[in-house]
Structures are given as C-alpha cells and as structure tokens.
Amino acid sequence: MQEQLVLGIDIGGTNIAFSLVNKNGELLAEQCIKTTSIKNPKELPGIIKNQINSSVITAIGIGAPSSNYFSGVIENAPNLNWGEDIPLVQYFEDVFKVKTVLTNDANAAAIGEQVFGVAKGMTDFAVITLGTGLGAGVVINNALVYGKFGTAGEYGHVIIEENGRNCGCGRIGCLETYCSTTGFLRSVKELEHKDKSSSLINSDKNYAAEEIFEFAINGDVFCNYVVDYTAQKLGLALANFAAFSNPEAFILFGGIAQNGEFFREKVEASMNKNLLNLYQGKTKVLTSSLHNKNAAILGSAALAFKEIA
C-alpha cells in the first residue's frame, strides 16, 4: 500500500515553505520560495505543483496570516501585499484536485507543536509566532480557537501603545510593531539610549536580529536594552493574555524566539512581574522545540491529515 502523503504549506511575510509530509511528521521534500516573488497569488498553486510530485498528494494544508478557516480565504493580510479576500483554497483545489484546508499560520504552528513538539499532552496553551508579524495559535480545552468568523488569535494586533507605531493593518500601536522580528529591528533604529553611540551597531547598516542578539549576549549595553525593551512588552502582553485563556504555557516560535533561553527568560520574568496573583506559578513561557523542523508546515500537514481521516 502506498504511503499516505499530504502537502504542508507555510505562507509567511518573507518566505513560503512547503513540503510533502508523512504521518510520522517527516518532511520529505522541503522547499522554499520568496513571498515577494509571488505577485499574483492565483499563480502560487501552479508554481508549487511544478516543484512537487503532485500525483502522490492526498490532501493539502496551508497556514497563512489573516486566514479564515471556514471560508478558505486570506482576508487582507498586511504583510503579504496580495490585496483583499484571496480565495486560496479554491485556487489550490482547482489546480491539485484534492481536499485543501486553510488556517492561520500561527494556528498551524500550534497544532504542529501539540503533535510533534513541547506542547505534547497539553490541552490549554498558546503558540506565539514571532516572524515578520506576530501571530497566536490558541488552544483551549484541546481545541483550536477560531472564533465566530474563523479569524481569532490576532494577538499581534492588540494595541499596546495608544500613540505608538504605525502598523501595516492601518492601526497604531499594535503589539507586532514592537515584538515581531520586524518590530525588534525597528526598535534598533528608533530607540534612543545614552550608550547607543558607543554600541557595536552602525546606524548606516541594516542588521539581522540574530546579530543584535549576539551583540547583546556579548555585553553591548544598547543592544541588551533593545532586547529587554522587546521582552518587557511581550511579557506584559502575555500576562494580559493569560487573564483571558488561563493557559498552561505560552510557546515562543520563530524569529527572535530562536535566541533561546536568553530571550525566553527575559520574557518570562516580565510576564511573571505582571501576572495576576491567581496565575502566579501556573503559567510557563517555553521555546519551541521545532525551530529546525518547521512547526508551521507540520501543523498544516496535521490539519490536512485530519480532513481525510
């Protein structure tokens, strides 16, 4: 009997990653293309089909920002620049002729974490994705939270600064403008500090987030200030989110979360400082164990397997 394979796709603001996946969670043909290379999303299924053996695919799972699970539509994702209301499920089913399911990229990461990562055995948790934007996949009572219209979990667009930074969504002061990888690098440019002039950073150069973290770990005062600033804002937000869903853990995934304990400890300290006493000692901050495995692809694939079970 032929092995059952699904196609898992993770659409982010920077990259689109995809792979054939088996039931053991093995990625058999992982590939990646730049999101900006896709000017018309209707062309995406054909581009992927040309790179993947479509004859073995039994279903497709897609994780993408601002996605509606119920309608199969991406609804005006600010980091994709594809316009409004993209019927992505229809595009893929027209080309591949197999069942396709679409969900928020953070929801996909949450399912991947629960099936294959540090959330195994957990029934109440949230995965916080820290990439180009900031998303959240929220699991309560062992079920993903979709909301009435399928777009719940937009934690990145909770306003944390009333007169703060402009956000791609059109509002001002959203969490992702401070705590996504993009927001973190924005802080490097915009924050002022007495030690900025003596920092290892050069104001004329654009740095990657991991370089800033490396400088911070090696004692650069200004870079450490930026890391602390970011962790404090994220930790405060998590403390507020805990009052809503009472999770066992918040799991940090992607982007700046890949800096491991150095960042996680700072976020957890900030969260604990601001947690309601009722939750003290009961909520953890963890780092994803799937950074090298692509939890979003695995989660999308898990949803696809669920559809054909």
What keywords describe this structure?
5-stranded mixed sheet; 309 residues; globular; 9 helices; alpha/beta; 12 strands
Description:
The chain is an alpha/beta fold and 309 residues long. It contains 9 helices and 12 strands. The chain has helices spanning 44-49, 88-96, 105-116, 176-179, 181-190, 209-217, 221-245, 261-274, 295-308; strands at 5-11, 15-21, 31-34, 57-64, 67-68, 73-74, 99-104, 125-130, 134-140, 143-144, 249-253, 284-287. The strands form 3 sheets. A 5-stranded mixed beta sheet has the order 3-2-1-4-7. Strands 10-9-8-11-12 form a 5-stranded mixed beta sheet, sandwiched between helices. The longest helix is centred in the last third of the chain and has 25 residues, at 221-245. It starts with a strand and ends with a helix. The model has no long low-confidence stretch (mean pLDDT 91).
Total helices: the number is 9
Mean residue pLDDT? 91
Low-confidence residue ranges: none
Number of beta strands: 12
Our estimate of the beta-strand percent is 15-25%
Query: How large, in whole angstroms, is the Cα Rg?
Result: 19 Å
Order of SSEs: EEEHEEEHEHEEEHHHHEHEH
Shape: globular
First and last CA, distance: 16 Å
Largest sheet: 5 strands, mixed
**Helicity range:** 25-40%
Trace the largest sheet across and list its strands.
3-2-1-4-7
Structural class: alpha/beta
